[in-house]
Amino acid sequence: MSYRTGHHSEYPQHHRPHDHGRTPARRPPVSQAPAAAALTKGGYTLVHAGKQVRFGPVVFWIVVGTVVLLGMWSAATATYFTFRDDVLTRLIARQAQMQYAYEDRIAELRAKVDRTTGRQLLDQEQFDKKLDQIMRREATLESHATALGAMSDITGSIRPPARGGAAANDMPSAGIPKPSPISDTVIFVAPPDREARLESRAPANVGPPATRFAKAGAVDDVLGRLEGSLDKIESRQLATLNSAEDSMESRLRRMRGVFSDLGLNMAQLEAATPRAGMGGPFIPVKLPANAGPFERQLYRINVTRAQVDRLSRTLALVPYRKPVVGEVEFTSGFGIRSDPFLGRPAMHTGLDFRAAMGDPVRATANGKVASAGWAGGYGRMVEIDHGNGLSTRYGHLSEIDVKVGDPIKIGQVIGTVGSTGRSTGPHLHYETRIDGEAVDPQKFLRAGVRLSAG
Questions:
Q1: pLDDT in tens, the chain (454 residues)
Q2: CA atoms within 13 A on the CB side of 317
């Protein structure tokens, strides 16, 4: 860098010693224009690698001043932080606080994710548990329906709910499969992997996706409706069972009342009742320790039904049914009456049923034909021995369709109505005897009416 002014010649003169006393040679006058130009263009020049860059004085001093100010600012800042440790400490503490806050936020987000995951796992576990409970309950109701189906002679057929009825409307169209109305139970089909995942069956014009809470609420609502449907089925089964138990107990009471009203020895009649061929080892019935109310009630019904069956076989030997079909109309009752031929008081040992000639006459109980033929004033008469001292007589028959020794079943036709013997017209003379003594047949008929009323 060089600094040149207009006070010095551009080309300085050199004086040599031998030039003293010699008149210097005259040179042509140099023009003053370059010197003026150099003066006006004075400044600073940077030379590097043969290249020159000129700066004016103002720019140069601005640059120098800026560098000096920056240096002074740096020195002052360093001196300030050197003697003011608390400021640096606060900066470091603030930085650490920000880092800790960031780490706390990350930990909070992780905890939230863990809680969300745990809640989802808990919801899944609860859903699986509810699903298992529903499936076990469905299996229990299925076994109950099977047990009730085996009692169809008591309860009748169990009508399943209609497919388009209210029971079907209780279940939504999507989400959980609908229960199948077979055997009066809900069949819930579990997913193959047993994960109990709900199938998404959104309609064609779906709206915005539901949130997780909305989906969880929908699942709970579906499970609640399914449990409600199972509750209805269970209550219907219990009602059927209660009705069957009441019916069986009422029937058993009426059967025992028949023996009491007729003055018959029930134990004696049961012992004398003929039985069909049966047998097998004796295995006592035991209820399991964990038997529920349904099983206990079903056990009571089965015990009552066994008693009813035993009494039914015994009552099959008791003549409490009508010997003719149709409305019962008596032309003459049991007891003292005026004799139709002599007009004098006489004992009538039976009932005279109004009937047309040729109407069928039926046996009123099981038994065996003791006599069949002409019997004086009875005309053509059939007597049936029912055992245990019970017997019945059917007189004034026009025809006899059985012979002595034939086994007789209830309701079997043994002859036809006529007017044979001591009779004034077609009718049936019917007698009931206990140990050979005639008793009023209406006593047996009234017992039969009460028994069949239930």
A1: 444 444 444 444 444 444 444 545 555 454 444 443 343 456 677 777 778 877 788 888 888 899 999 999 888 887 776 676 676 677 788 888 888 888 888 888 888 888 888 777 777 777 778 778 888 878 888 877 887 777 766 655 444 444 444 433 444 444 444 433 333 333 434 444 444 443 444 444 444 444 554 555 667 777 778 788 888 888 888 888 888 888 888 888 888 888 888 888 777 777 777 777 777 888 887 878 888 888 888 888 888 888 888 888 888 889 989 999 888 788 899 999 988 888 899 999 999 999 999 999 999 999 999 999 999 999 999 999 998 889 999 999 999 999 999 999 999 999 999 999 999 999 999 999 998 999 999 999 988 888 877 5
A2: 26
Give strand pairing partners of 371. Answer: 383
- Beta strands 407-408 and 360-362 are unpaired
* End-to-end CA separation in angstroms for the chain: 138
Written as six digits, the tokens of 281 are: 């080892």
Cα angle: 383, vertex 387, 391; to 5 degrees: 30
Q: Determine if the pTM surpasses 0.90.
A: no
Beta strands in 290-332 (DSSP E): 330-332
